[in-house]
Amino acid sequence: MDDKSRRDVLRGGWKLGGALLIGAAAYTGYEALRPLATSAGGAKITVGKTASFEKDTSTYVPAGRMYVVNANDYIFALSQKCPHLGCHVPYCESSGRFECPCHGSIYDLAGEYITGPAPRGMDRYKVTIEADNVVVDTSVVEPGPAHGAKIFLTPPKGPGCIGKA
Amino acid sequence: MTDVDLDELEPGRASVDHGVTARVKRSDAWRSVFRHAQQDTPRGRALQSFSNVFLHVYPVKIPKRVLRMRYSFRLGFIAMVLFGILLVTGVYLMFVYTPSVGSAYGDMQHLKTSVGFGQLIRNVHRWAAHLMVLVVGLHMVRVFYAGAYKKPREFNWVIGVMLLVLTLLFSFTGYLLPWDQLSYWAVTVGTGLVHYVPLFGGRLQDLLIGGPQVGQNTLLRFYALHVAVLPMLLVLLLTVHIWRVRKDGFAVERASVGAFAEEATERPVAAPAAAAMAQATPALYGGRVRLLGVVDRESVTEAARPVDDTVFTWPHLLVRHVVVALGTAAVVLGLGVAFSAPLHGLANPNLTPASEKAPWYFAGLQELLSHFDPLIAGILVPGGAILIFVLLPYIDRNPDTRASHRKVAIILFSILLAMAVGLTVIGTFFRGPGWTFVAPWTHSYIEF
C-alpha cells in the first residue's frame, strides 16, 4: 500500500514538475517580451494658437505623430497611424484628403472614412482650447468614426495623390 | 600501426599496396574513424552505410524509379541545401550586423562598401531565402499531387506544413533586419495584422513588437527569433521530417489499393519473417525498403535478392544529390552576382513611402487585404488555409494515390492553388504605387 502510494506520488509528481517548469518558462517568456510602460503617448502637447489653424487645412505635428486639422472650423487631432494596418497616412494637398499609400484607404479632412479597406476613420486625440491655445492630450485616444459618418465630407479639391509614384 | 587482415579487407588481392594512402587507410587510427573499409560488395556497401551516421540518413538501396528526376524533382533536397546556404551566409552576416536601431542600417552600408564579398553574401542570403520559399511551396505541391501525404505519412505532411510556416516566419523576421524603409513599413503592416486576431490580438501585437510602434524592441526580438529561435525549431522539425521520410520509405504510385494497405502496416518484423515476407510480396517496393531497415544485416542482402529492381544509394542517388546541391549553389550565386539586394533609405517612422509593397510571397495576401476586412483577409483566410493544409491528410481518407481515383481532391487543391498563384501574380505585377492597378509593362515597380 505504502509502496504503491509512493509510486503514485512520483508518477504524478514528475508530470506536475514538468507542468510547473513549462508554466515558469512561458511566464518568463512573457515577462521578457511584454512592453514596459509606454514612453510614447500620454503627454499633453500645446500645438499653437487657434488662429494658426486656418479653415480647411491640415498641420502635421511630428512631436505627436499626428495631424491637427481644421475642418469647417472644427479642430481635430488625428493620429497619423492608419487604422487599417498602421502605415503613416500622408495628407494629400491637391485633394485635401488623407490617402494611405499601403492599401489605398482614403479619409476626408476630419479623418472620416471614405473608401478602402480600413475598418473605421482615423483615430482622434482629445483636443481642448486653453486660453486660445490648442492643446492635444495624446493619452486619450478616441477610435475613428465608423463607416458612414460623413459629416465633414466635401468633394475633393483636386486630383488625388495615390498612384503618382 | 597494426595492419589488418588484408584478405578480409580486400579478398583476392594479389599484392600489398605500400603507398602512403593505402597504409594510412589500413591504420588503426583510420579504422577508428571509418569502421568499414570500402569493399565493393553488397555486404561491404551495406556495412559502410550502417556504420556511418551521415550515410545512414539514406537507405542502403533504393528503388530505381526514385532516381528519376520526375519522382520528386529533388525539391525537398533542394530546400535543405538552400537552408544550408542560408545558415552559412547567415553566420557571415552575423559577424557584421548589430541589431540596433542606431547601427543596423549603417552595418548594411558598411557590408556593401567595406567588406570584401560582403554585399555578395547578403545577396546570396536573400536569394536563397526567396528560393527556399518557392521550393518549399513547390515541394508541397508535388507531394500533394503524388498523394504522398496519405497513410502512413499523414503526420510528416503536417510537419511539412509547419516547416513551410517556419520558412515564411524566417523571411518575415529577416525582412526587418536591414532597418530601411522597405523593411520598416512591411513589418509595420505585417504586425498590424496581428492586431486583428480575435480576443487577444492587441496583446499579441504588443508582445511581437514590444511597444506602441515598430522600434528597437521589435528589431532585437526579430533578430533573436531569426538567428536563434526559428533555426532551432526548424532543425528540430527537419530532423523529424527527414527521419520519417527515411522510415516510411519512398512514396511510389501503388498498383492497387490493396497492396498499399498491406504495405502500410508497420511493425517490427523478426529476421526470418522479414525475409519470408519479402519473398512472398516481391512487388512491394516500399515494404521491402522498410524491411531493410528493421531486420538484422545478414538478412538485408538476402531480402533484397528476389527481384533486383533496386540500386545502391551510394553512388547512384548520392552522386545525383551532389550534382543538385552544386547546381543549387551555382544558381543562387549567379542570382546574387546579377541582382543585388536592395537597401532603401533609413527607416523613418514618420514617412510611409508611396511604393510600399510586400515581397512576392506575401503579395497575394496584400492583394486580399486591399479588398476585404483585415480580419477576413489577414487572419481568417491565411489561418484557414494553414488549418486546411494541416488537416488535409485526415480529411482526405481515400488511400488511393492514383490521380484518376482522387479527382475531387486534385480539383479542389488545384482551384486553391490557382487562386493563390493568381493573387500573387496580380499583387506582384499589376499593382503600382498606392496599390493602384497598373499593367506590368508600363512600370518598373517590380522588385524582388
What's the short story on this structure?
With 165 residues, chain A is of the alpha+beta class. Helix content of chain A is 19%, strand content 30%. Chain A has two domains: 1-34; 44-142, 3-layer Sandwich (Rieske Iron-sulfur Protein).
Task: Walk me through what this model shows.
- The complex is a heterodimer of chains A (165) and B (448).
- With 165 residues, chain A is of the alpha+beta class.
- Chain A has two domains: 34 residues; 99 residues, Rieske [2Fe-2S] iron-sulphur domain (Rieske Iron-sulfur Protein), CATH 2.102.10.
- Chain A is 19% helix and 30% strand.
- Chain A contains one helix and ten strands.
- Chain A has a six-stranded antiparallel beta sheet with strand order 1-10-9-4-3-2, with no helix packed on it. A four-stranded antiparallel beta sheet of chain A has the order 5-6-7-8, with no helix packed on it.
- The longest helix of chain A has 32 residues.
- Chain A is elongated and about 85 Å long.
- In chain A, 35% of the residues are buried.
- Chain B is mainly alpha-helical and 448 residues long.
- Helices cover 64% and strands 1% of the residues of chain B.
- In chain B, α4 crosses α16 and α9 packs antiparallel against α19.
- Chain B is globular.
- The chains are: A alpha+beta (165), B mainly alpha (448).
- Chains A and B meet through loops of A and α10, α11 and α19 of B.
Which helices and strands appear, and what pairs or packs with what?
The complex is a heterodimer of chains A (165) and B (448).
Chain A: H1 2-33, E1 44-49, E2 57-61, E3 66-71, E4 74-79, E5 91-92, E6 97-99, E7 106-107, E8 113-115, E9 124-130, E10 133-142
Antiparallel strand pairs in A: 1-10, 2-3, 3-4, 4-9, 5-6, 6-7, 7-8, 9-10
Chain B: H1 6-9, H2 20-26, H3 28-33, H4 42-50, E1 61-63, H5 69-72, H6 75-96, H7 104-114, H8 118-146, H9 154-176, H10 181-194, H11 201-209, H12 216-248, H13 257-264, H14 271-280, H15 285-294, H16 297-304, E2 310-312, H17 313-338, H18 360-369, H19 374-395, H20 407-429
Antiparallel strand pairs in B: 1-2
